[in-house]
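Support request, priority: normal
Reporter: lab tech (M.K.)
Component: structure prediction queue

Hi team, I submitted a job for Acyl dehydratase from Paeniglutamicibacter sulfureus yesterday, and the status page still shows it as pending. I've pasted the exact input below so you can check whether something in the sequence is tripping the parser. The sequence length should be 302 residues. Please let me know if I need to resubmit or if it's stuck on your end.
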Amino acid sequence: MSAHTRVLLDASPSLGSLYAKAAGARLTAQFPGSKPAGGALPEVEHHLEGLQVDAAKLVAYQRLMGDTVRDELPSVFVHGMVFPLAMSVMVREDFPLPLLGMVHLANQVTHLRPISPGAMLWATARAVNLREHRAGTQLDLVVEAGEGADVVWRGASTYLARGVWPGARPSAPAAPRPPRDNPERTASWRLAADTGRAYAAVLGDYNPIHLSAASARALGMNRAIAHGMYLAGRALASAAPHGVGYDWGIEFATPVFLPSSVDVAIRVGERETTFSGWGARSGKPHFSGSVAAHGKVPPAGD
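Reply from support: The job had stalled in the queue. We restarted it manually and it finished. Here are the results:
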C-alpha cells in the first residue's frame, strides 16, 4: 500500500491549463528568489474517479495509429486518458523539477487484461524514485488505472530534467553510447510536419515541443519532435496482442524531428515481439522496445 497522501481530484485536469501553469513556473524560475530545483518529491498521489472513454477520440486514435478497430482499448490510449493526472503531480508547487523541457526516456507498462471502451475507470498517479542521471536528474511517474476493485493498467514513465542535479554536477563527461547496428527494416513511416499536432488533437498533449518549429525553439529544440507515445502507439498497433493482458516497454534514444522518415523493424519471437526505429537517412536509433502477452493469444476472430 502506498504511503503517499491521497489528493482527490473532482475532474480530469485540462492539459492546456497544466502546460500554462508549467510555462508560468518556467518564467518565475528565471528570477532571483525562486526555489532551487532538485529537492525531494512530494509525498502525495493524485486520484481521480469516473474516467470514461470518448468514443470519437478512440476512433480518431485508431485511425491515426493505423490500429485495428476492436472492442478493447489500446494501451497507449489508456496512457493518454491518465496522462493529465500524472501531469497534475508534476506542476505542483512542491514538485522540485521543471516540467517544460523534460526529456521522455522510457515507459514500462503492464496492461493486465483487455479493457472495454465502455469501462468506467479510476486512476492514481504519483512521482517516485528521484535519482541521478549522467545528464541531470530522472524520476518515474507511476500511474495505476482500475475498474471497480481491480487494477487493469499500470504504467511508469521515466523523465529526465537535463542539466539539473540533486547534488554537485558530475565532473566526468558522460560516456558515449555504444554503436548499434540497425536490423533489417520491416516498415517505413513517413512522419509529416503536423504529426505532433495530429496526436495532440486526439489525446490533448499540446506540449509546445511537439507542435511547431517556433514553439519547439522556445524550449531549446531546432524543430518540433514527435511525441514518444505516438511512436509507441504506432509500434504497438502492429506488435501488441489482442484479447489478453500484456507487458510492454519502450526506451527512447534520439528525438524524431518533424518532418522525417523512420525505418522500423518488428520481430515476432517465441516469447515476445521486439520493435525498434531509426532515422531512415541518418541511421541514428530513435527507440526500441518489446511486448509480451501474459497468456495464450486467442486465434484471430475469437
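Residues 242 and 297 are 7 Å apart (CA to CA). The first strand starts at residue 5 and ends at 9. Let us know if anything else looks off. Ticket resolved.
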